[in-house]
Amino acid sequence: MDFLYTLVILLYLGVAGLLVYLVLVQEPKQGAGDLMGASADLFSARGVTGGLYRLTILLGVIFVALALVIGLWTR
């Protein structure tokens, strides 16, 4: 059982590293209106940027799910 717990922790760390990388690789939105929430296309990403955006969301969901699993794990 300790092996499985260690595997989940390593997976969690890998997902965290990939998540940080993907957030840093994405291009920032341009314009001062984005700072005030005036962006109309906040959730409409296209092309390669759209793929990175979707992958970031997926890794974020996996990160949260693994955090819950690790938190509820009884050792």
Automatic annotation (TrEMBL):
Family affiliation: Belongs to the SecG family.
Residues that span the membrane, as ranges: 6-25, 52-73
Keywords carried by this UniProt record: Cell membrane, Membrane, Protein transport, Translocation, Transmembrane, Transmembrane helix, Transport
Alphabetical list of Pfam families matching this protein: SecG
Gene Ontology biological process terms in this record: protein secretion
Superkingdom of source: Bacteria
Function (record text): Involved in protein export. Participates in an early event of protein translocation.
Membrane topology: Multi-pass membrane protein
First and last residue of the signal peptide: none
Organism whose genome encodes this protein: Thermus scotoductus (strain ATCC 700910 / SA-01)
Name the UniProt record assigns to this protein: Protein-export membrane protein SecG
GO cellular component: plasma membrane
UniProt KW Ribonucleoprotein keyword: no
A GO molecular-function descriptor: protein-transporting ATPase activity
Subcellular location: Cell membrane; Membrane
